Amino acid sequence: MGFASEDQNRREKDVAAELSPPLSGRINDYENGGDELLLTPPLNFAMVDSGIFRSGFPDTANFSFLESLELRSIIYLCPEPYPQHNVEFLKLHGIHLFQFGIEGTKEPFVNIPEDKVREALKVAIDVRNHPLLIHCKRGKHRTGCLVGCLRKLQRWCLTSVFDEYQRFAAAKSRVLDQRFMELFDVSDFKHSALPPIS
Amino acid sequence: MGFASEDQNRREKDVAAELSPPLSGRINDYENGGDELLLTPPLNFAMVDSGIFRSGFPDTANFSFLESLELRSIIYLCPEPYPQHNVEFLKLHGIHLFQFGIEGTKEPFVNIPEDKVREALKVAIDVRNHPLLIHCKRGKHRTGCLVGCLRKLQRWCLTSVFDEYQRFAAAKSRVLDQRFMELFDVSDFKHSALPPIS
C-alpha cells in the first residue's frame, strides 16, 4: 500500500499487464470504430458480477451492445414467447436461451414461484453459462428478485440486497418482492447446486 | 441457440467448466462460513465492469466484504485525508491508494476539475490496477461522473450514461454533472492512454 501524489499516480511496477477482456475489448473497439458509433445498453442494464449481467427487455437497438458482451446465455423470466428478432439474434450468435415463465403481477397479488427462481438461480451461477444476461420486461421485479437471491447466496446482508433491488425498481419497489427475497432459503445451494469448482 | 424447456434447462455440453473467480470464490466462501456471517457492501456499491467497482465511502463494517473483492487499488475522489482505519486496511491487504482530491460541491457551484477526472480515468482503465474500487463520499456525484466518463470511453450513448448516473444519484441527480459528462472529450484516450493490450 502506498499513497501516490497525483503526479506519481501511475504505477510503473513489475506487475504484469493483465487483460480484463470485456472492458479492454470494449474500449479497444473504440479505436476501431468511429466516434459516432454509439452503443445502447438495454434499459436498466448493469453488471451483477463477473460474467453476469442484468437488464430490461433488449430490443434491436441494443443488439450491437449485446454483441460486445459476447454472451453465452440469456435467462428470460417472462412467460411470453421470445420475439422473432431476438430469437434470430440469439441464433446468429450461438446464445442459449433459458426461459423461466414468471407472470408479471402487481401488488397485492404478487406470487413469485419459488421453484422457478430456484431453477433460474442454478443456471445463473453455473459458470458454464457465462457470460450471461438475466432479463425480464423492465429489469425491476423478476430480475431484481433473482439477483437478490444470488446476493443472499453471496452472503450479502438484507439491507444491501434491498438497497440494490430498490436502485433498479425505484418508485416501483414492492414490499412483497422484498419479503420473497428475505424468505428465500439459500441453504440448499451450499452443498448441491454449486457450479463445479476446479 | 436453442430453447430449453424448464426440465432441460441445464446444458450438458462439452463446454469446459470455467471459473468466474470473484463470483465462485464468494459463493464458495458461503460453504466455509456460517449462515450468520453476512457481508455488508459499502453504500451504493456496484460492479462497473470486470475488475472495476464503485461505492460510497467504505467504513469498518464493509471491510470483510472488501476483502472478498481482493482489491489491488482504490481510487478515492475526495480531498480529505483517508481515515486511519481505512489506511490500515489498505496496508494490511497491500492495496494501493490513488487519491484525486475533488471538492464536494452543491449546485449551482459545481465545478468538476476535468484534469483530475482525466487522470483518475487513466488509472481506472489501467488493468494493472485491477481489481479496483472507485469511491467518493456517497458514490453519487464524483464517482458517478468518473464512471460516466468511462462509459463514454466504452461508447455508451449519453442516454444510457445518464440513466446509470441517475440510478445512483437518484433524488440528488445534478444537471451540471451530466453536462460535465456530456462535454468530456474521450478522443485523447483513443491513442495515448489505453492500457497495453496484449
How would you characterize this protein structure?
The first copy, chain A, has about 200 residues and is an alpha/beta fold. Chain A has a domain at about 45-185: Protein tyrosine phosphatase superfamily (Protein-Tyrosine Phosphatase, Chain A). The first copy, chain A, has seven helices and six strands, in the order βαββαβαβαβααα. Chain A has helices at about 20-30, 65-70, 85-95, 115-125, 140-155, 160-170, 175-185; strands spanning about 5, 45-50, 50-55, 75, 95-100, 130-135. A five-stranded mixed sheet of chain A has the order 2-3-6-4-5, with helices on one face. In chain A, helix 5 (about 140-155) runs antiparallel to helix 6 (about 160-170). Chain A is globular and about 45 Å long. Chain A starts with a strand and ends in a 15-residue tail after the last helix. The model of chain A is unreliable at about 1-20, about 30-35 and about 190-198 (pLDDT under 50). Chains A and B meet through strand 1, helix 1, strand 2, helix 3 and strand 5 of A and strand 1, helix 1, strand 2, helix 3 and strand 5 of B. Strand 5 (about 95-100) of chain A pairs parallel with strand 1 (about 5) of chain B, so a sheet runs across the interface.
